[in-house]
């Protein structure tokens, strides 16, 4: 995925192709279908597949960084999207998570690495990286492959150092940090 509704990819002959789409929505829909096609090309999916839909800006998230996320989760059924089993998109609360803390499924920990503020990503997560043989009663059947569309709304980077005047400065944040600290610890931008 590239800025201005472009996508680039390599074919099986390692030739590079670029496609320009007429709208952001069309580029995103195409990228989702590419990810589903990749999933369907594997006899058994044994790792997380992800496809960036929008790249976002700033430094990519790493282990220990905190994110606020809007997401929707579907069951992967009949080689495509099944029913929605969870979403916070139309709710007031974003999901807060700290990468590497083990508080979310392993597939999210893996699939969210490198995401940037404003980035959107499509994740296809096999059962072993999700809820496994137990599933989630009433929502996720046992041994389910899951699909998530996730959007990072806020990022708090963990790596900080002190500058010479004693103020805390993020070594991986934007060059102009917000002058007003937020009580929740997330930067105002």
TrEMBL record:
Q: Which PROSITE patterns match?
A: FKBP_PPIASE
List the Gene Ontology MF annotations in alphabetical order.
Answer: actin binding; peptidyl-prolyl cis-trans isomerase activity
Which residues does the annotated region (Disordered) include? 162-189
User: Which residues belong to any copy of the PPIase FKBP-type domain?
Assistant: 64-156
Known catalysed reaction(s)?
[protein]-peptidylproline (omega=180) = [protein]-peptidylproline (omega=0)
Q: State which Enzyme Commission number(s) the record gives.
A: 5.2.1.8
What is one GO biological process annotated to this record? endocytosis
Instruction: Indicate, by first and last residue, each region the UniProt record lists as having compositional bias (Low complexity).
Output: 163-174
User: What superkingdom heads the lineage?
Assistant: Eukaryota
Q: What's one GO-annotated cellular component?
A: growth cone
InterPro entries linked: PPIase_dom_sf (IPR046357), PPIase_FKBP_dom (IPR001179)
Any keyword Transport? yes
Question: Where in the cell is the protein located?
Answer: Cell projection, Axon; Cytoplasm; Early endosome
Q: How does this chain assemble? A: Interacts with WIP and actin. Interacts with TBC1D23.
The family classification in the record reads: Belongs to the FKBP-type PPIase family.
Protein name as annotated: peptidylprolyl isomerase
Q: Taxonomy-wise, where does this protein's organism fall, top ranks first?
A: Eukaryota, Metazoa, Chordata, Craniata, Vertebrata
- Which gene holds the coding sequence for this protein? Fkbp15
